[in-house]
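Hi, here's the filled form for the chain we discussed.

Project: internal
Contact: R.S.
Residues: 139
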Amino acid sequence: MNTALILIIGIPIIEIYLFIKIGSQIGAFNTILLILVTAIIGVAYARYEGFNTLRSGMAQLVKNELPVYEIVSGATLAFAAFLLILPGFATDIFGILLIVPFTRKLILRRFINKKKHSKNKEFIEGDYEDISDDNDKKI
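And the returned structure, exactly as it came back:
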């Protein structure tokens, strides 16, 4: 099965389950209020971290260095803010993990290492020989 299809089906199921469980414990109004509060606080913190990343990227540019980590980190922060805006507890938890600098570095490092290892497996080394006949070509 395609990973995207599993995510499209699985994430709402997990969110609905968490809404029911948490809503039965704290009440419907408090559940809705908690979702709104996490979205507002999360997006505000993502904005703060985004400005810190932008400041760090500018410092890298001043040093004549390419701010690769800052670019990837900025994209990760935008994705984290998107996850926090989506209503749900599982997406909020993952969004918060991506916003906090320590956990973001761990997640990015693991993702980058996984991509490096998968890239090495894609190479097939070999030789080739051109077997076309030069006599077939007539000008």
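Let me know if anything looks off before we file it.
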